[in-house]
Write a structure and sequence with these properties.
Strand content: 5-15%
CATH topology of the largest domain: hpI Integrase, Chain A
Distance between the termini: 44 Å
Number of strands: 5
Number of helices: 18
Low-confidence stretches: 181-185, 403-418, 431-438
Strand order of the largest sheet: 1-2-3
Shape: globular
CATH architecture of the largest domain: Orthogonal Bundle
Order of helices and strands: EEEHHHHHHHHHHEEHHHHHHHH
């Protein structure tokens, strides 16, 4: 039986900067006591505290590895607090092999070999940090014995036998090809959007997904979107109280990924959708539930609340997004298992490039024109590597326009009216093939 590790979010102030920090900590639950994994938690504090999402990923990998170690004979009856000092390069490699073996046994496309490799690199980063900070370990991060070679014929045969699957079952290479296909064709289709939106039990999440489609906001930005803004966002109000003559509004996202600040452009149609689909019908009632629960008025800086009046967090969007996906998979045969809430972020840059280039996107080489729209793309997405971002979304936009065929002109026209107009056509069944990946 593997070790039970509890992951909890803690909040504290950085003693040097005074900045509020939120990060995950790992607590090992043993029959006698609950033990803080101090070395792992120090690593998370130093290397992953800039982003709660990063802390979530890193802590998840460390938790997974510690749980694996607890099932290994060499770690039987050993104190979990000392695991870091006992681990060798071969333990890390065995962990990778065990994940691949479990994957093959389940005939699953995830986690892919690439994911397993990337997770192992983060784990090596943990031991590299321990070594550099004077903590004793048996891991030599310079040696290649840490990394499992899944291209080796001998390794492939071993894993296939270990997983106890027949020769006719899918092997690592086949499953990795499927995983790459899911990754390449990850642009959510029109029909998938329609099904996904109708699969949320709480309409607040559907509204958040629509807002993300129209703005490319990350979940962390959506959850911080205010009812009434302050600082540079004092003009952010319910749409009925804003200047309806303006076509777009700027919104400054504070404390975004990497604790950065960036400016996002929001089309008035998306603010109107927010007002009509969430603020007017739901917000007042949820504010009352917030007050009943917490004994105080809901801050004006908080907009999105769930049905119980609890402020929605990025983790909650992921959880509810997964639940909506499961429901959509049951009701729509063509809905892909790879779809996640975060796919909404890829929609805006695709529509933006269709709007910017129009038919030239399919008929001309647009690479040399990237500087003309690059700054807008960089600002909205919050990316630093602009050239790679541009090339990636140009490919997606071309796929979408090519698939739309006869509806291309309609798609381009609607892009000028804001992404919400395109979503409206999707919900009404007028663009069901636009964006469909063949």
């Amino acid at each position: 039986m593997s070790l039970v590790i509890d992951r909890q979010v803690i909040e504290y102030q950085d003693p040097n900067t005074g900045i509020a920090i939120r990060q995950y900590v790992l607590i090992a639950k043993t029959p006698k006591i609950n033990c803080l994994l101090s070395h792992a938690n120090l690593f998370l504090m130093n290397e992953a505290r800039s982003s709660l999402n990063t802390s979530n990923r890193y802590s998840s990998i460390l938790s997974m590895f510690y749980r694996f170690l607890s099932t290994e004979p060499n770690f039987a009856n050993k104190e979990v607090a000392n695991y870091h000092a006992l681990v060798t390069n071969f333990d890390i490699r065995r962990w990778q092999v065990s994940r691949q073996t479990e994957r093959i046994a389940k005939q699953s496309s995830s986690p892919s070999s690439e994911t397993i490799y990337e997770d192992a690199k983060i784990l090596l980063g943990y031991f590299h940090w321990l070594n550099n900070n004077g903590y004793l370990t048996n891991v030599n991060v310079q040696l290649k014995t840490c990394i499992a070679n899944f291209k080796s014929e001998r390794m492939l045969a071993y894993i296939q036998a270990k997983a106890r699957v027949t020769k006719n079952a899918k092997n690592i290479r086949v499953l990795d090809k499927e995983a790459r296909q899911f990754a390449f064709n990850s642009l959510i289709t029109s029909e998938e959007i329609r099904q996904y939106l109708t699969s949320f039990v709480d309409p607040a999440y559907a509204v958040m997904f629509k807002l993300a489609l129209g703005t490319a906001m990350r979940p962390i930005d959506l959850c911080k979107f205010p009812y009434i803004g302050d600082r540079k966002n004092v003009h952010i109000l319910p749409y009925s109280e804003m200047d309806s003559e303006k076509l777009t509004f700027e919104y400054t996202a504070y404390g975004s990924k990497g604790n950065k600040t960036r400016t996002i452009v929001i089309h008035r149609d998306d603010l109107k959708m927010l007002d009509e689909c969430y603020i007017k019908p739901l917000y007042d009632d949820r504010r009352k539930r917030y007050k009943e629960r917490y004994g105080k008025d809901c801050p004006l800086s908080v907009l999105f609340l769930n049905e119980q009046g609890v402020p929605i967090t990025p983790k909650m969007t992921t959880s509810r997004g997964t639940a909506a996906k499961k429901k959509a998979l049951e009701n729509y045969k063509g809905f892909r298992d790879s779809i996640v809430f975060y796919d909404s972020r890829h929609w805006w840059p695709t529509i933006f490039l269709i709007q910017f280039f129009g038919d030239d996107l399919l008929t001309k080489a647009v690479d040399y024109l990237w500087a003309a729209c690059g700054e807008a793309l960089k600002t909205q997405m919050g990316h630093s590597d602009l050239e790679t971002t541009f090339a990636h979304y140009v490919d997606k936009a071309r796929v979408m326009m090519g698939a739309a065929k006869g509806r291309t002109t309609e798609l381009i026209t609607q892009a000028h009216a804001g992404v919400h107009a395109v979503i409206g056509q999707i919900e009404n069944g007028k663009l069901t093939d636009a964006g469909k990946v063949s």
